[in-house]
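Re: the 441-residue chain
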Amino acid sequence: MYLSIFNHQNCPPVLSHSHARRTFDRALRTLPPSLHHRIWVRYLLWAETRGGLTTVAVYRRYLAIDPSVTERYVALLLSPSNPSPRPLEAAKLLLRLSRKAARGEYISAEGKSPYQLLGDLLDVVEAHAEQVGLGIEEVESTEADEESADGDPQQQQNGNGLIRFAGPPTAVGADGKPAPVYDEDEDPNSLRRLDIEKIIRKDGLAVYKDQAGRLWTGLATYWIKRGEFDRAKETFETGIASVLTIRDFTQIFDAYAEFSESVISGIMEELANPDEEDEEMDVKETEEELDAKMKEFEELMDRRPFLVNDVLLRRNPNDVQEWEKRVGLWGQDDEKVWVHCLLFLHQNLSDLSHRWQRRTCAHSLPLLRAGPHRTSTACTLTSPSSTKKAVPQARRKRTWLMPARCLRRLPKSTSRMLRTLLRFGVNGPKWKCAMSGLPFH
């Protein structure tokens, strides 16, 4: 009853500040632990009304015994009404919760999944990039320090001086189980900022492969907020080249296009409103930069059909319909058709070719070549190879023969691809493709 007075709106400041805090602490020291929950409820409500360092100190004490209200504490740290937000501490708490939830050691009081907690971390990172994450130079220096530390292993000893002969000493808790390894990224009291790219790749992309679009976009947005446009562009390109679904590709590509448009609009505004101190050379450099950005944006738009086709082919390399679309996209450019389509054929032929010709270079690319009146297909190699069983003409031309019974083991998609190449007219004097004696499936 007495503690409820401190939350009353008419309580004088003399009682509602230091006296109230000391009274709550005295109650916790006096009462048995079975009654502490009745004190903590009013203590936390009072701390939220005070705000500032008082809220931080009280919540940190309570989280040591009951981490279930961590999400509530994070919301208070990032609240717009908070005069001194603490985004770094909130990010580290969310990272700890996400990892614990992924291991099954934490159940969110708000019913959030581990990925949703990681998404909350991304939102904090995007909103407070400068205060939460490391820059490029700091990331490189941190990686160098970790490599040097790995090269100089140090022996660790626990407090009781016991050493295990089967391996390095390991600290254990009161229950006899190994104590969790200290991670500075999860320590809210540490002032060291986070390596966002490492965290997203390790805890995000390596675990939630079906959410790659959101993760790559969040990482690129982080670099944009820090002003690292080249690193953001590299991140977009890496994400586009690695996703396996059209949904993820569309999410990354739209963000990439929006980023390019914002850069172009910013340069155009700079040219429209030049400063008086700008010289003519600076204006010319800005115009050249604008032309380069416009050209990159146009090339990006032109590449979209090919990038979509790449995503579908990465998901299923044996999808002949997509390979036919790729051939149609290149049109009459026979060299591009051969370079890309034969890579697909090489995946099917390489394993079988090494069985029959062990002397073949591992990096050689088999190119199909015609042979008159043969029941097998001859393939030209970049390195010379010949066998005693090969015909003299094939040996002179540095070719090798693949038996027909070996080609019959190829999937049906390979024969359809060969037929597609023939249909689109890739039959110049230099490259030919013939499957004489082999029935098409």
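Confidence is low (pLDDT under 50) at residues 153-164, 358-410, 421-441.
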